[in-house]
Write a structure and sequence with these properties.
The protein is α/β, with parallel strands linked by helices. It has ten helices and seven strands.
C-alpha cells in the first residue's frame, strides 16, 4: 500500500508590537483555527527598526505571507522614527516587487486602542483612553492592555470586529496593500501604495489582515 503524500501546511506570520494585539490575535487564531504564528516584537530601544531586523532575519519556510502590525503614532511622536518607518515600508515594498514572500505592512493610526474602541457601537470618535475607562470599564489604559481576554470582550455582547471593519476610514490610510489570491496555488501577490500626507490621520488598513488571514480558513 502506498503512503499518503504529506501535505505541507502553509502559515501566516504575524509580527506585532504589543501584548494587546498578541492576545487578541492569539485567541482569534484559536477560535477560527487559523494557521498563524505570532512574533511579539520588543520596541524598546529600537522602535520600528526592531521590526525591520526581526522581519528580515525571520525564516520563510512554508510561509504564505508576513503581516507587520504596528501603531503609527510613534512616527509622529519620536524623532527619527519616521525614517525608521520609511525603511520598514521600503523593505516590504521591495519584497512584494520581487515576488518573494508577501509582506503586508499594517498601520493602526494612531494605535490599537483606537481599533479596539471601534469594535463597540457606542464609539463615535471619542478620546480612546477616556472611552476605555468610562464606557468599557477598564481602570486605565494599562489595565486594558493587560486583559488576556480582550478578543472575547471585543467580540461579544454586541461588540465585533465586523463593526470595527465597517467603520474604518480607508480613504485616510497611509498604507494600502492591493492584493490578489490564487487559492489553488496558495499564491498571494501584493502591490503596496502609500501617502505620507495621510500619516497621523485616524485610519487603519487592518482589514487586509482579517480578509487575507481568514481567506483560507473562512
Amino acid at each position: 500500500m502506498s503512503r499518503k503524500a504529506r501535505v505541507t501546511q502553509k502559515i501566516f506570520k504575524v509580527f506585532c508590537e504589543g501584548s494587546t494585539e498578541h492576545n487578541y490575535i492569539n485567541e482569534m487564531r484559536r477560535q477560527k483555527k487559523l494557521t498563524i504564528t505570532l512574533k511579539l516584537v520588543n520596541m524598546e530601544g529600537g522602535g520600528y527598526r526592531n521590526f525591520l531586523e526581526q522581519v528580515k532575519t525571520d525564516g520563510t519556510t512554508n510561509c504564505l505571507a508576513k503581516f507587520i502590525i504596528i501603531d503609527g503614532d510613534r512616527a509622529l511622536a519620536e524623532e527619527g522614527e519616521k525614517k525608521n518607518l520609511r525603511e520598514l515600508l521600503n523593505y516590504c515594498i521591495l519584497q512584494n516587487k520581487n515576488g518573494k514572500i508577501p509582506h503586508f505592512l499594517i498601520i493602526n493610526d494612531p494605535d490599537f486602542e483606537y481599533i479596539a474602541c471601534m469594535h463597540t457601537p457606542k464609539y463615535k470618535g471619542q478620546n480612546t483612553a477616556q472611552y476605555l475607562i468610562k464606557e468599557l470599564g477598564y481602570k486605565s489604559v494599562d489595565d486594558f492592555k493587560a486583559d488576556t481576554k480582550i478578543y472575547q470582550f471585543l467580540n461579544t455582547n454586541g461588540n465585533s470586529y465586523g463593526h470595527m471593519l465597517s467603520l474604518l476610514k480607508k480613504e485616510n490610510c497611509f498604507v494600502i496593500n492591493n492584493y490578489s489570491i490564487n487559492r489553488k496555488l496558495y499564491d498571494i501577490k501584493v502591490s503596496t501604495t502609500y501617502d505620507w500626507k495621510m500619516l497621523g490621520k485616524k485610519a487603519s488598513n487592518i482589514n487586509e489582515f482579517f480578509e487575507v488571514a481568514t481567506y483560507f480558513n473562512p
